[in-house]
Write a structure and sequence with these properties.
Layout: H1 3-10, H2 21-34, E1 37-38, H3 52-61, H4 68-81, E2 85-95, E3 100-101, E4 107-114, E5 117-121, E6 135-136, E7 142-145, E8 148-155, E9 158-164, E10 167-169, E11 186-192, H5 200-211, H6 216-219, E12 222-226, E13 230-235, E14 238-247, E15 250-257, H7 263-271
Parallel strand pairs: 10-15
Antiparallel strand pairs: 1-12, 2-3, 2-4, 2-11, 4-5, 5-6, 7-8, 8-9, 9-11, 12-13, 13-14, 14-15
Helix pairs in contact: 1-3, 3-4
C-alpha cells in the first residue's frame, strides 16, 4: 500500500496520523467522489480479481473504478494501514423486483471500531443508495446525509440498511416509465450479520457474478460516480445526472440516450475512466435501479 498514491488518487490532502472518525469520514467521502462504482472490466474482456496489488494498480495507478469487492477491499487495506480497527463483512443485496435478498453475500462492506463505537463503511454501492459517510452501527437511528435518510435496523442478529429519499423530477418524459427508476421513497438496500469475512469468502461469488449469464453484472454495463450535488451514471446507453434536493423534497433526474460510439468518450469526460480495451455496452432487462 502506497498511501501517498492512494490519497493523490482520491484528492485527499489532510492529516492521516490519527485513526479518528473525522479522518474516516473525509477519506470515505473523497473516495466516493473520485472512484467510480463500475463493472466495465466484464464488458471489456478483462478478468476481475481480488488480488490487492492488481486492484491497487487498476484503481489507483490506472484511474479506473471497480465494484464492491475491489473498492471496499482496497478501502479495507487503506484503513488497516492507517491504524483503524476494521473487519470485513458480507451483505446480501435486496432485489426490489423479486422482493428477495440475494442468495449469497455478494456485497463486501467494512465494520470500523472507533473509540469503542462501531461504524459501517461502504464506498462502493453506487447510484442513489451510496452512503457518503460511514454509518454508526446503531439500530433504528435515522442518519441523514445528502442522498437521504439512512437507517440501520437490527433483528435477531441480522442488520438491514434502509434509505428514505425524495420524489423524482424527470424532465425527459420518455424516461418517466424507465425500468431504471424506482420511485419508492423508502428502499431496502441490503442485509448483513457481524460475522467476520475474509477474501476467500467472496471468491466463488465474484467468479459467478462476472461469468454467469444470469448475473446482473454480465447483463448490464454500469458506471456511476458521486458528485458534490448528487451522482452521475451510465447504464448501457442511458446517461443520467442526478441533483439531490433540486427542489424542496424532490431530486432532479436528467436522463438521455447516448450513441454507442460516444459511450467511451462520456466515460472519459464524466467519470475519468479511460478503457484499455473496447467496451461492449449492454443493458438487458434485469433489475437495477438508479
Amino acid at each position: 500500500m502506497n498511501l501517498r498514491e492512494y490519497f493523490e488518487r482520491i484528492g485527499y490532502s489532510g492529516p492521516f496520523k490519527k485513526p479518528d472518525l473525522e479522518t474516516l469520514n473525509t477519506i470515505h467521502r473523497c473516495h466516493i467522489l473520485s472512484v467510480p462504482f463500475e463493472n466495465l472490466s466484464i464488458h471489456c474482456g478483462e478478468k476481475i480479481t481480488m488480488d490487492l496489488d492488481t486492484i491497487f494498480n487498476k484503481i489507483v495507478r490506472r484511474g479506473r473504478g471497480g465494484w464492491c469487492c475491489e473498492n471496499n477491499l482496497l478501502f479495507s487495506w487503506v484503513l488497516k494501514e492507517l491504524g483503524y480497527d476494521t473487519t470485513m463483512l458480507g451483505a446480501k443485496v435486496f432485489n426490489s423486483l423479486t422482493k428477495e435478498y440475494s442468495p449469497t453475500e455478494s456485497h463486501l462492506i467494512n465494520k470500523v471500531i472507533i473509540a469503542g463505537k462501531p461504524y459501517i463503511a461502504d464506498v462502493s454501492f453506487g447510484v442513489s443508495c451510496q452512503i457518503w459517510e460511514p454509518l454508526e452501527l446503531i439500530s433504528g437511528k435515522g442518519q441523514p446525509q445528502l442522498p437521504g435518510l439512512f437507517q440501520l435496523v437490527e433483528h435477531e442478529g441480522t442488520w438491514v440498511l434502509f434509505k428514505t429519499g425524495r420524489k423524482i423530477l424527470i424532465p425527459n418524459k420518455s424516461f418517466v416509465s424507465s425500468s431504471l427508476l424506482d420511485k419508492a421513497l423508502t428502499k431496502t438496500i441490503y442485509c448483513f450479520t457481524l460475522a467476520p469475512r475474509s477474501i476467500d469468502h467472496f471468491l466463488q461469488t465474484t467468479e459467478h457474478l462476472q461469468t454467469s449469464p444470469d448475473s446482473l453484472f454480465t447483463n448490464k454495463s454500469i458506471c456511476s460516480l458521486q458528485t458534490d450535488t448528487g451522482f452521475r451514471a451510465v447504464i448501457g446507453w442511458t446517461y443520467s445526472e442526478v441533483i439531490y434536493n433540486y427542489q424542496e423534497g424532490h431530486d432532479l433526474y436528467e436522463m438521455s440516450t447516448i450513441p454507442d460510439e460516444e459511450v467511451e468518450e462520456v466515460l472519459k469526460e464524466k467519470f475519468g475512466v479511460a478503457l484499455e480495451h473496447q467496451l461492449a455496452s449492454v443493458n438487458n432487462k434485469l433489475c437495477l435501479t438508479l
